[in-house]
Amino acid sequence: MSSAAGILVRAAWCVATMAFAGAASEMCAPEEPKCTGPATPYQYLAVLASEGYDKTERPSCGDGEPTIVDVQFYLTQVNNIDQKLGTMELSGYLRYWWNDPRLAFNGTKDGGCSDDVVLMGLDGNRIWVPDVFVFNAASRTTDGLANLTNVYPDGSVWRSVQTTILVQCKLDLGPLPYDKHVGFLKIASFNHGSTEIRLRPREGTAGPGLSGVALKGAAMTNNVWKLADGVEGEFKTPGLVEEIDGQDFLTMTFNFARKPKYFFDQVILPCVLFLLVSYIQVWVDPTKVPARAFLSVIPVLIMRTLSNSVYTSLPEGSQKMWLADCLRAFTIWTILGCVEFGLIQALRNQEASRAKKRAGLKAVDKEAKKLIQAVRDEQAVDKEASLLKLLDKCEAVKEERSGEQVKVASPEATKREIKETHMLFIRYLIKIFHKYDKNDGNDLSVSEVQKLMTFFDLYMSKAQTASVMCMFLRDQGFQTPKEEIDAHVNLSQTCGLLLDIDKYILQHGRWGLVELWQSSKPSERCDMLARMVIPVGIMLTLLILYLTLPNYETAS
Description:
Blueprint (H helix, E strand, L loop, with lengths): L1 H27 L12 H10 L16 E16 L4 E13 L17 E4 L11 E3 L2 E5 L5 E5 L4 E13 L11 E10 L7 E5 L7 E9 L7 E3 L7 E10 L2 E12 L2 H20 L8 H22 L11 H42 L1 H17 L5 H8 L2 E5 L2 E5 L2 H6 L3 H17 L9 H8 L8 H14 L15 H9 L13 H6 L3 H26 L9
Parallel strand pairs: 1-9, 1-10
Antiparallel strand pairs: 1-2, 2-7, 3-6, 4-8, 5-7, 6-7, 8-13, 10-12, 11-13, 12-13, 14-15
């Protein structure tokens, strides 16, 4: 009895366990699918293959209408702009939108399993894709980059291909470094005319014209360029469709301008500063030749170095550029500084040569004064006596000795102890005297004496010359006119004045700009002129360059 009860209990336990397991298995079992159609991209592609989908065949739009393809480029970064080659490397996503009725499927509202089919990578190439290409591309890279294709229930397709593309562009470098440019992509179908495929900007209209949004740009920064008319943020531009030879060409553009700070800081500003260094040399004492040579030559070399550095990244063509003209103008000014330095040295050599003649005249001071006194003594008896006649008497004479004609010192020279070396510089003075004695009246006016003095490195204003002449004449016992400017001197008086000029040279007379100019040596005048002209010239050059900047811009 007890054994029978135990068997019954064990049987009841087994039945209860089986019942619980059955209920649990019912609770954990997956529900039967309630949607129809493909649930994964692989299932979707399998369905297309089973229905005989041909990816080489263009989608039909009915009544022979062309397939409408919307195109847009989403720019994420301007990687590089090669100004020498005229190319730009852009990174972004080339996007297309079109409709292919053969790709339609049931969405979730119609009992389908999905509202879009996402085809990744190469799977996106298993359906028909527009054969668009970038007409102005030098090269294009999509290998290893992402691409995505979305198919929607009504057969509309959106495709995005990540790409890095090198495009050709025309850079107008005329206003450099204030240059502005237009970058562009020109898109076309490689194998279909406008009767088969019509390209249009996203949200635009089919056919020629400007519409839609062909290019969008993400917020980006660039140290060299300002994008989207100077706004570094998200931007969008319309697209221009042109029909050329029966084919649609979609042009999408964006504006970019150079940030001029680099060229201003590294080229223009140094040029101006070294131009000032070149200008400083006109204030340095002309006798400090090494210092002036350094200050005039070094800026020229630096200008050439800056000019060469500019062209390391720019095309070495014949295009007229504002920056190149600036460098050229600045270089010319620094070269003019070198020319001024060379002119100063040439003038100083001339002044030194004239100073030697004056020193030579001073060396025969005693003999010259002896001759002048002799002339004055003779004039007391013979008014026709003159220094020139006395010198002629002192010239060497011919004599016959031992059957030969020879020249010997004249008795007059021997008597007065005058040697030919004593007469050499006096003869030079007489030559200059007669150069300015136009009427052969044996006298010179104030202005003529002023000019004669320059041949002996003596520079005085007209008023100063008149004052010095009158003081000398009065000291020698001669009368002077009431108006000093009307004074005259003869040859012997001129010679005496030159010999004693140091006693009167401090007589400056009336000072003014004209007097200062006349009493300065040619080398000093050159420096004075350079000190005034160079700053004015540089300022005018900068003004002209600034005003002509718009002339360097060409219509893009």
